[in-house]
Structure formats: C-alpha cells, structure tokens
Design goal:
By secondary structure, the protein is mainly alpha-helical. Helices cover 62% and strands 0% of the residues.
Length: 133
C-alpha cells in the first residue's frame, strides 16, 4: 500500500534535492563586524584612569559597607577623591587593583557548585558510583 503516487514522490524528491542544493551552494557571508565608537571616552590622562580604578573599587559591597561603618558617606568619598593629588590618587588606585570590581564572590561559588554537579552527573551517566563520606 503506497501513501504517495510515484509522480508525487518524484516531484517531492526533486523539490527537496533542489532546495538542499540551493542551501549548500549559496555563498557564505561571514566575517567580523566593523568596530564603532560607542561613546566618548572619558579617559584622557593617567589621573582619569586611576579615578576609574578607584571608583570601581568603591563599588565593591565590602568596601562600601566598611566606609559606612566608619561614618563616611558616599558624597564625602567623591568629594575627597576629586580633591586628591595625582600621586595620592595613583597610590590608592595601585592599592585597590587587587580588589574585585563590584562582586562579592558569589559568582565563583556558584560556578564551583555547577562544576561539581556536572562531574557527579557525568559519573552517574557512566554508571560510576559516587560515595561521599
């Protein structure tokens, strides 16, 4: 018992063949997108670069909380940064480069947990037994 007549099968096969051939023959147009200026860059001097580094360090939750604990408001901090000398600002920026900019480590903890779960799932799929003591 045939579901399609032979003429319909022939034309369907021919249509699919032409369609697939057109897809594979078409030229590939891949490449890098050209870069564009996204905005005006505010960093023109080393002072501006140091200011950006210090401001990112001040966005850290731990640093902001410690400053609040000592009674320093964010407005006072910005005012003091604006009046600092170039040398003092550079020293502060150099000292704050080791701090994470805005994060508190939760992302790293989640990544480690996901890796551990992935390893356990792979071991289970390989029929290996996971024993935690």
């Amino acid at each position: 018992m045939r579901t399609f007549p032979s003429r319909l099968r022939f034309w369907t096969a021919l249509l699919v063949l032409v369609y697939w051939s057109a897809i594979h023959i078409g030229p590939a147009a891949a490449g890098l997108a050209p870069s564009r200026v996204s905005g005006v860059t505010q960093i023109a001097t080393t002072r501006d670069a140091d200011m950006v580094v210090v401001q990112r360090a001040l966005e850290n939750k731990v640093v902001a909380q410690k400053l609040r604990d000592y009674g320093v408001s964010p407005d006072d901090t910005k005012l003091k940064l604006a009046t600092m000398s170039d040398q003092d600002l550079h020293t502060l920026a150099t000292a704050s480069k080791g701090l994470p900019s805005g994060g508190d480590g939760a992302g790293a903890l989640i990544t480690i947990l996901v890796i551990i779960i992935l390893v356990i799932v792979i071991l289970k799929l390989m029929n290996k037994e996971v024993i935690v003591r």
